[in-house]
Design brief:
By secondary structure, the chain is α/β, with parallel strands linked by helices. The protein has two domains: about 1-35; about 55-340, Alpha/Beta hydrolase fold, catalytic domain (Rossmann fold). Helix content is about 35%, strand content about 15%. It is built from eleven helices and eleven strands. Helix 5 (about 175-180) links the parallel strand 5 (about 165-170) and strand 6 (about 190-195). The N and C termini lie far apart (about 85 Å). The relative contact order is 0.14.
């Protein structure tokens, strides 16, 4: 009789426990949604940005020095990505990837100098939502779509030239996307990697840890609360809020890109820089300027060499954007190319 009574009580209590857990879960989700929907950060209009120096303006890459031809690639979702191709009768093709707020147009000088220093064909790609490529500015359809697009481009190139060597070169965000690509086990193999001031990853020691200056705060902001909330949501498989912006730039709304969504921001670099670097099993070259404004140049050598067989060079007195055009940079690239017989 006692056993029957206990069983009946258990059957009555279990649904209540389940309901209580469900209520707790719903309360937690409501709080997370509140976190996600906190207002977007705003920029203090009283914080005036310093005027750009003549060198900083030149390093953005507006000058169109080198001739190229346009080329289009069709992605798996039928979107078209545009690339500017710097032709060369070569057995090696370098796919050049730009950074945040940038495009293949602003990589003209970098592409031309790479072609000169390596005697390779160079294809400067516009990521979706950037430059002349289709897509929503600052957004992707899902996390890792930048990598899927890169894979589609590589597949198309290999179909056109099956014996062509492929080198991936990327600046800043472009370098981070390259590391994510290297982690794809089933992706087409390539022959080498060149990373200019790359975004190694969100947990990398190369990210600056010091307090943000007033000048930096007047230009770029992260919605930290929203990122935390969305990470919680994604951990339980909920992705419906991933289109919300989390990375903001103090730029006129008329600019092509002024902010990036959570899913775009997550797609820019590996979650773990060590796994990204460990995935590289081909020659790797990393070059950064000693005066890089975005990353801690002094931390690159340890971060890269402890987690890969890559080579790291720090170019004195060069900046984040300037490293792409620096004469010493191209000399290093040329020597590296020769050392590994990549031509």
């Amino acid at each position: 009789m006692k056993q029957i009574t206990f069983t009946i009580l258990l059957l009555l209590i279990l649904p209540l426990l389940a309901q209580d857990e469900l209520n707790q879960y719903n309360k937690a989700e409501i709080e997370i949604v509140k976190l996600i929907n906190l207002p977007d950060p705003t920029f203090n209009p009283n914080l005036i940005q310093k005027p750009m120096t003549e060198k900083a303006i030149l390093d953005l890459g507006f000058e169109q020095t080198y001739k190229n031809v346009s080329q289009k690639f069709i992605m798996r979702d039928d979107k078209q990505l545009l690339a500017n191709t710097y032709k060369s009768e070569s057995k090696t093709t370098i796919i050049l990837l730009h950074g945040v707020l940038s495009s293949s147009f602003l990589m003209n000088k970098t592409a031309g100098l790479l072609r000169k220093s390596t005697n390779s064909e160079v294809i400067a790609l516009d990521f979706r939502g950037h430059g002349q490529s289709e897509g929503t500015p600052g957004d992707v359809d899902y996390i890792n779509q930048y990598v899927d697009d890169l894979e589609d481009v590589i597949i198309a190139l290999k179909e056109e030239k099956p014996n062509q060597k492929i080198i991936l070169a990327g600046h800043s965000m472009g370098g981070g996307i390259i590391l994510r690509y290297a982690m794809q086990q089933k992706a087409p193999k390539i022959n080498g990697y060149i990373l200019f001031a790359p975004h190694l990853g969100v947990n990398s020691p190369t990210l600056k840890k010091e307090v943000v200056t007033k000048e930096e705060a007047s230009f770029i902001k992260l919605h930290i609360n929203r990122i935390i909330g969305l990470k919680m949501m994604n951990a339980i498989g909920e992705t419906k809020y991933n289109n919300l912006p989390v990375l903001f730039f103090n730029l006129p709304e008329a600019m092509p890109v002024t902010k990036y969504s959570y899913r775009a921001n997550e797609s820019m670099s590996p979650l773990d820089y060590k796994k990204g670097l460990n995935a590289i099993n081909k020659p790797l070259l990393v070059i950064v300027g000693s005066k890089d404004e975005a990353f801690d140049a002094k931390k690159f050598k340890t971060a890269v060499t402890q987690n890969s067989k890559g080579e790291v060079y720090v170019v004195e007195n060069e900046t984040h954007n300037g490293i792409r055009h620096n004469k010493k940079t191209m000399e290093i690239v040329s020597q590296w190319f020769n050392n590994y017989k990549l031509q």
